[in-house]
Automatic annotation (TrEMBL):
Biological source species: Chinchilla lanigera
Superkingdom of origin: Eukaryota
Coiled-coil segments: none
Keywords per UniProt: Signal
Pfam families: FAM180
UniProt protein name: Family with sequence similarity 180 member A
Signal peptide extent: 1-17
Annotated region described as Disordered, given as residue ranges: 169-189
Gene: FAM180A
Length: 189
């Protein structure tokens, strides 16, 4: 009887560990996966699919942005605002990224406890959240400025950690075993 209970607990633990990792990936930007009935916005929009689009994103971020009282972001430059990718930019900024301090803190906490590296779209959205947070920090005063600055720093640290993780060389399990068998100060060459 005891071994059946142990087996059941082991199975439950493995199932719980598998499910929690699978679901933790989807909760960074839940609005990206939630379709809106009144909109023709694509599900899970992404801005950067080529080098030209990365450069366009850079131009959009350098252009003068306006944040309305209801926290809607728009590009003031009419030429840039008329581009199709600018529409995706507005969608991501207005419907996907978090814009309130509690939501940004929740994102930062999720990023800090997340194993592995971010997917391209999650990295992009985190960078846009960082840019939005920097903009709000610059506009704030007093205590609010400190709160926004803390959120800015935690997002920056999460992105920095992700960049460091993604720039490390990939090591296969067999190579890891070989490197652990070596004495300190010796090499395989």
């Amino acid at each position: 009887m005891c071994w059946k209970t142990l087996l059941l607990l082991l199975l439950y633990y493995n199932a719980q560990a598998t499910v929690s990792h699978r679901w933790s990936r989807a909760i960074l930007f839940p609005a990206a996966h939630r379709p809106k009935r009144s909109s023709s916005v694509p599900l899970n929009p992404v801005l950067q699919t080529s080098l030209e689009e990365v450069e366009l994103l850079y131009e959009l971020l350098l252009a003068e942005l306006e944040i309305s009282p209801d926290l809607k972001i728009s590009v003031k430059d009419e030429e840039l605002a008329s581009l199709r990718k600018a529409s995706n930019f507005r969608t991501i900024c207005n419907d996907v990224i978090p814009k309130r301090i509690p939501d940004i803190r929740r994102l930062s906490a999720s990023l800090a406890s997340r194993p592995g590296i971010l997917k391209k779209e999650d990295f992009e959205r985190t960078v846009l959240t960082l840019a939005y947070t920097a903009y709000r920090t610059a506009l704030s005063q007093g205590y609010q400025k400190d709160v926004w600055a803390q959120a800015l720093v935690s997002l920056f640290q999460a992105l920095r950690h992700d960049l460091i993780q993604s720039s490390r060389p990939r090591v296969s399990p067999s190579e890891l075993g070989r490197h652990q068998d070596l004495e300190p100060g010796t090499s395989t060459q």
